Hints:
Helix content is 37%, strand content 10%. The protein is α+β, with helices and mostly antiparallel strands. The longest helix has 34 residues, at 45-78.
Amino acid sequence: MAGLPGPIELRKVALGTCARDFGTHCVHEHACVRCPVPWPDPERMPPLEEIRANLVDRRQEARAKTRVRRARRRTDITGNGSSRTGRCGVSA
């Protein structure tokens, strides 16, 4: 196959190697964590695990804050501290 250039090199990215075809556009440019085709380098797994743990913590914190806001909103609506509401927000 005389028309092929030298050996095909792998595209190196921050977390390992990108499996995207050469000459194709990447919608995740510089955001490889969101991409479905990276080949993580085993040496880069600790940072990936740290990123994942951070995301899990942030999601749990956001859910907890949402629960507190909803509970406060219910208390404000009922006026008596009751968090039990029926349909359409009417106290049960």
